[in-house]
Amino acid sequence: MSNVPITVAHGDGIGPEIMEATLHILKEAGARIDIETIAIGEKVYLSGNAAGIAPESWESLRRTKVFLKAPITTPQGGGYSSLNVAVRKTLGLYANVRPCVSYHPFVSTKHPVMDVVIVRENEEDTYAGIEYRQTDQVEECLKLISRPGSEKIVRYAFEYAKKFGRKKVTCFIKDNIMKRTDGLFHRVFEQIAPEYPGIEADHWIVDIGSAKLADTPENFDVIVMPNLYGDVLSDVAAQIAGSVGLAGSSNIGENVAMFEAIHGSAPRRAGQNLANPSGLFLGSILMLVHINQPDIAERAHNAWLRTIEDGVHTYDMFKDGISKEKVGTREFAQAVVDRIGQKPETLKPVTYTANVVDADPKPIYSMPTPQKKELVGVDVFLDWWKGSFYGVANDLGPLVEAVNGDGLKLQTIANRGVKVYPGGFSDTFTVDHWRCRFVADLGEGTAVTHGQINSLLQRLATAGLDVIKTENLYNFDGVKSYSA
Amino acid sequence: MSNVPITVAHGDGIGPEIMEATLHILKEAGARIDIETIAIGEKVYLSGNAAGIAPESWESLRRTKVFLKAPITTPQGGGYSSLNVAVRKTLGLYANVRPCVSYHPFVSTKHPVMDVVIVRENEEDTYAGIEYRQTDQVEECLKLISRPGSEKIVRYAFEYAKKFGRKKVTCFIKDNIMKRTDGLFHRVFEQIAPEYPGIEADHWIVDIGSAKLADTPENFDVIVMPNLYGDVLSDVAAQIAGSVGLAGSSNIGENVAMFEAIHGSAPRRAGQNLANPSGLFLGSILMLVHINQPDIAERAHNAWLRTIEDGVHTYDMFKDGISKEKVGTREFAQAVVDRIGQKPETLKPVTYTANVVDADPKPIYSMPTPQKKELVGVDVFLDWWKGSFYGVANDLGPLVEAVNGDGLKLQTIANRGVKVYPGGFSDTFTVDHWRCRFVADLGEGTAVTHGQINSLLQRLATAGLDVIKTENLYNFDGVKSYSA
């Protein structure tokens, strides 16, 4: 079998030491890889590259499609953007995968039985960071959830479960409140789950689901989530497993995949042969499975488990009475190498299987079935304020109604999602951000035109009302597709 | 001292039993209250009231301004809206407060030392539920964070800490990603904190903060958060304290406040004298402090702690070896009544102090200082799709540029927050939701007019491009106030 080219970055701080240790184990375990080294991080930032990665390095990533990355240091001060965000966005790394495992009794944790994999959507949600200030008082961020984006991550979660022999995939959403956005994610989950009859599928509302995860993680297996929930809960899961220093993760795209430790570059520990290479090493195990070298992954991972269980621990894991030997980075790696061919006796050994070439692979997202989209109105948002937080909606109402015409009429005014006109309550607190809903004169659901909306905007401007944004209202296949 | 009128609802399922038990303890502890009873919940829903509360009941709430509420059952089937949401929105209950306490060793928990209060913003964030579908593939939800809304909740958290003798208030936000929305919440926190020099103030990014909370809750005291994070983490905190069945909460508005248990109506346990009244009882303790009867609150709460510590437990708390006596709802309440005047010996007794009338009370929100707002462009969102998820941005670019004119020009096109034109990458995955940013011909930051934007929208419509929404771009006091 020929070697697989991979791109490696040694990073900053403890990065070079833990990468050296990781590559030492991989080599001794027989990994069939050819390494292309690129420079990323602090030096690249300081040489004037705002994203911390040189243009030629992208070529290596696009060529090898596999990136093993050590932690980096982003320099203090403004103007430096996140390398991880740049890599993720540019290469479309849509899935963040983080296995969170307890190694009880060898690593201390309050949750001795825990083996959870968080599969987090990585590109959408409020984390796209699309934000606006349009009034004195209010800031807005857009939460976007797409069907193909949801299909990609849910599909990935089930394929991961299949490949890694997992029994259950759980979906966390808040679709009792966010019926459209989280509702879409949940519907996609329900559509894809039946294609995997051997894998149990269930879902939790994210609040109580998170509570269960934090209290009894042993009841979970693979959990798939939109970006924000996944960000929070992948940190929670790693921390309560006792394994922030021990966890690796992958960032998977359609073409390129990146593997790393979840911890940072810990500059204060650098250069002292102290750091624990386990996080990056476990990231590299995910990489070996990804490049279809399950035999090597299994051999290296089991040797690592045996090392943990033999009490050969770096300073961060070391605990009197449990640990047997406190070792440095290099000695830890050598201890793993010395155990290649052995398996753990107390901890459960791992097994990995080769990628099966699927004769009829499922598409990772579907072509959308276009629906009949009909424009039925517009929400026009106004910046308006009368110097009071109470009872002014009844002043605004008639001003807005005065621009009714040309087939459009004001239906309601809402403030922070609460209807305040007509018929609002005087004890509803209002801010300077007003949503005015216009629908057809003939009744909600009747089609209107872009031209009617543009004329309305013109009339609002003429009336001196300060339009700050619009949201068109649509029916899809005759069904109202906007919130009340 | 004259009695304080309060409104009481006995609710559904176990509601009537636990309310009876709670009121029995309050009465015997000497609470100076006059009760107005209202009907809410299942029967009211089924009688045709979609919000589960009759119009005349609002009058009682507005009159007494204090609402002690038992859990209710929302009937199955569509068309019934949440009573809690209706009460919260209508009466502006902006603060949700949930103390989460461990009662180790009397109630089992992995976190023996825990006494955390979650103060959650209750009206804003994505939970306003403002959602739109405007393309085949994408759903949108608006996240709104306001300055007065943030001021109210942060102010409340510090005032709560002062009143209840708390030492620290921690803020959880994700302002490294959501720089504007979460950034505003964080800035407000930093502005208000120094007004409370006796109270420590710190903040965490919500991901790692949540991990720390789930792992070592003993390091936290009061935590204040925007709505979504607060929803998730108040459930996490209650669960890991072992106290979901034991936790009460308050929902505080400028005028009205509501007190309740955090659990539901548990219809299957109803009518059997089984249910634990502690959650509602502890909610009523918050109420007694709120209506300035700290002496009664202290007496009743300490009697309850002594009951817990004496091992007199309802079925849900009962554990062999720890509990001494398994009792029903009524017997539990009587056990608390029998201990009025006693204090716990192992658990820490509570002390409450009277409300001090502040000679110079701080306003709960400030009048905004109007800034100079200047319109400098517009993001126009298009529904456009060419049947491919890759590489089509270069086809869209020229179509949009063709409508340049009248002083406005296309600057960039982005898709899910990633710039794709000009100069995008062919490996960026795109959906059918395109953000086209238009700025002044003379350069970004130069003022434009509403008229120019309206003409642009007209030209886009004429060109057959499907505008689905707009977001105006503003500078405030000369500072760019929208994301890249």
Could you write a compact summary of the structure shown?
Two copies of one chain form a homodimer. Chain A has helices spanning 15-29, 42-46, 55-64, 83-91, 147-163, 181-192, 206-215, 227-240, 278-290, 294-309, 329-338, 393-401, 450-462, and strands at 4-9, 33-38, 66-69, 93-101, 115-121, 131-133, 138-146, 168-173, 200-205, 222-225, 248-253, 257-261, 312-313, 325-326, 373-383, 408-415, 418-421, 433-440, 466-476, 479-480.
Report on the structure:
Two copies of one chain form a homodimer. With about 475 residues, chain A is an alpha/beta fold. Helices cover about 30% and strands about 25% of the residues of chain A. Chain A is built from 13 helices and 20 strands. A ten-stranded mixed β-sheet of chain A has the order 2-1-3-12-11-4-5-10-8-9, with helices on both faces. In chain A, a hairpin with a 3-residue loop joins β11 and β12. The mean pLDDT of chain A is about 95. The interface between A and B is large, with 108 and 108 residues.
Percent strand of chain A? 15-25%
* Oligomer status: homodimer
Question: How large, in whole angstroms, is the Cα Rg of chain A?
Answer: 27 Å
- Give the biggest sheet of chain A: 10 strands, mixed
Structural shape of chain A: elongated
Average pLDDT number of chain A: 94
Distance from N terminus to C terminus of chain A (CA atoms, Å) equals 60 Å
- Please tally the helical runs of chain A, counting DSSP H or I stretches of 4 or more residues: 13
Poorly predicted ranges of chain A: none
